[in-house]
């Protein structure tokens, strides 16, 4: 059983005794506390389902159609046939694919490196006194602590 213990809390410069139950470190938890721990998950479930449907459904559709001869004509007729790995074999031996792939890697690497260097350069423009002062330079309200 939990035994209450008296603790002192300061409220508006008055000292009052407050009874607070001690937390048990045991394994037994009440049904209410277990349900309370799951409440955030239940609240996030609708958003999680929407995100899964909006991201996973198109990906699954693309993977399935990559093994077929799906085209614009298929949109109207609904007729398509399975071609297996033939499209992948055709793409991987095409030199144009590999040159486009190399350009994509170079472009992506340049964008990431450029973003990092520009971000580091801009960060050097801020004073080193703290977060509150940097926010004031940008024009926001600084979150600096007086003292």
Automatic annotation (TrEMBL):
One Gene Ontology cellular component: plasma membrane
PANTHER family: ABC TRANSPORTER PERMEASE PROTEIN, DIACETYLCHITOBIOSE UPTAKE SYSTEM PERMEASE PROTEIN NGCF
Highest rank taxon of the organism: Bacteria
Subcellular location as annotated: Cell membrane
Membrane topology: Multi-pass membrane protein
Region annotation (Disordered) ranges: 12-32
Membrane-spanning intervals of the chain: 38-64, 97-118
Keywords: Cell membrane, Membrane, Transmembrane, Transmembrane helix, Transport
InterPro entries: ABC_transporter_permease, MetI-like_sf
SUPFAM superfamilies, A to Z: MetI-like
Protein name: N,N'-diacetylchitobiose transport system permease protein
Predominant cellular place of this UniProt entry's protein: membrane
């Amino acid at each position: 059983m939990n035994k209450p213990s008296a603790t002192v809390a300061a409220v508006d410069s008055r000292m009052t005794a407050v009874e607070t139950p001690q937390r048990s470190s045991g394994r037994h938890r009440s049904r209410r506390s277990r349900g309370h721990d799951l409440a955030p998950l239940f609240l996030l479930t609708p958003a999680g389902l929407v995100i899964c449907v909006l991201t996973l459904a198109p990906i699954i559709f693309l993977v399935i159609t990559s093994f077929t001869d799906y085209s614009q004509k298929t949109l109207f007729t609904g007729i398509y046939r399975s071609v297996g790995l033939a499209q992948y074999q055709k793409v991987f031996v095409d030199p144009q694919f590999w040159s486009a792939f190399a350009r994509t890697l170079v472009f992506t690497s340049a964008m990431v490196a450029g973003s990092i260097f520009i971000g580091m350069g801009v960060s050097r423009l801020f004073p080193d006194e703290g977060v509150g002062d940097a926010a004031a330079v940008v024009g926001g309200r600084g979150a600096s602590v007086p003292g």
